Amino acid sequence: MAKIATAESYKVIRRGGITSDRWLGTFMLAPAILYIVLLVAGPLLFAIYLSVSNATTGEYTLEYVGLANFVRALQSSIFRTALANTFIFTIVSQIIVIIFGNMLALALQERFRGRSIVRFLILLPWATPVSLAAIGWKWMYDSLYSVVNWMLKAVHILGPTDFPQWLGFPSLAIPAVISVHVWRTFPFSAVVILAGLTSIPQETLDAASVDGAGFFHRLFYILLPMLLPIITVAVLFGTVFTFTDMGAVYILTAGGPFNSTHVLSSWAFQVGIVAGDLAQGAAVAVFMLPVLLVAAITMLRIASRETGV
After folding, report:
1. Where are the domains of the chain?
2. Which of 54-63, 177-186, 216-225 has the highest mean pLDDT?
3. In which band, very low, low, confident or very high, does the pLDDT at 20 lie, cut at 50, 70 and 90?
């Protein structure tokens, strides 16, 4: 009787709205909605507002100028270089990241002594603050005390008198910056892909092995198709992170040499904060919004189509 009474009391409480699923859901989502409104939507709307004004540091009045800042940005050769670099850095780094991420995930799936320690160490590049990591890489690419040069000389790729200026020439600075992006982002992709690998039924792989499928057949016909939604999510996060990151570029090269390694985010900071042209900097930053929106929608559609959701 006590159990029946308790159940009836719970139904009465639910009818009264005290434990309503609707209010519970609203309450649980409130912190995330508040975060998005205050720290994402608010600054985004303010940036759009600045991009159509003539705002500069030291001025208290704003005037509406329409699309003049966007036109001026498109006419700048440095902006066009930054836009091209943004796509180059993102596309090249994500291709390398996905390849290395899959290789690392497959390796970490195997059982070996110290696997838990290796998994922990793999995440260090992702967890390390970008400022510390970029400073470390800047020392590694130093023209005189470069660890990279020392290793290349040790394996006789470079001669004893060769001292490549990794951050001093555009042809070397761009690959150097891409390598730092790869180093920082591929552990995250590897962990995401590893989580997807653990969800694949072992019976499927065992059946393929019994049928005579080798490693590469299982990889290209079973693992990768089943991992495609997971890989899409990893690429989406990596794309957003790389597309909007300015820390590595600004600390390694500050956009140099000759403004050849600027990306949109670093050029927006240079123009809007360092030079004081807030409106122009905001216009450069807003250029990233439609590209990221299209990329996010495309990748999420691919993932939903593969999962059937």
Report:
1. 76-307
2. 177-186
3. low
Average pLDDT of the segment spanning 190-212: 84
When mean pLDDT is compared across 75-79, 87-91, 215-219, the lowest value belongs to 215-219
Amino acid in the structure at residue 97:
V
The CATH superfamily label for domain 76-307 reads: MetI-like (1.10.3720.10)
Q: What is the 3-state secondary structure (H, E, C) of the chain?
A: CHHHHHHHHHHHHHHHCCCCHHHHHHHHHHHHHHHHHHHHHHHHHHHHHHHCECCCCCCCCCCECCCHHHHHHHCCHHHHHHHHHHHHHHHHHHHHHHHHHHHHHHHHHCCCCCHHHHHHHHCHHHHCCHHHHHHHHHHHCCCCCCHHHHHHHHCCCCCCCCCCCCCCCHHHHHHHHHHHHHHHHHHHHHHHHHHHHHCCCHHHHHHHHHCCCCHHHHHHHHHHHHHHHHHHHHHHHHHHHHHHCCHHHHHHCCCCCCCCCCCHHHHHHHHHHHCCCHHHHHHHHHCHHHHHHHHHHHHHHHHHHHHCC
Q: Does residue 101 contact residue 234 with C-beta atoms inside 8 Å?
A: yes
Q: Are 100 and 188 in contact (CB under 8 A)?
A: no
Between CA 272 and CA 54 the distance in angstroms is 11
Length of the chain: 309
89 has pLDDT over 70: yes
Of the pLDDT bands very low, low, confident and very high (cuts 50, 70, 90), residue 301 is confident
Measure the CA–CA gap between 78 and 255, rounded to whole angstroms.
Answer: 10
Model confidence pTM above 0.90: no
Token look-up 């070397």 returns 172
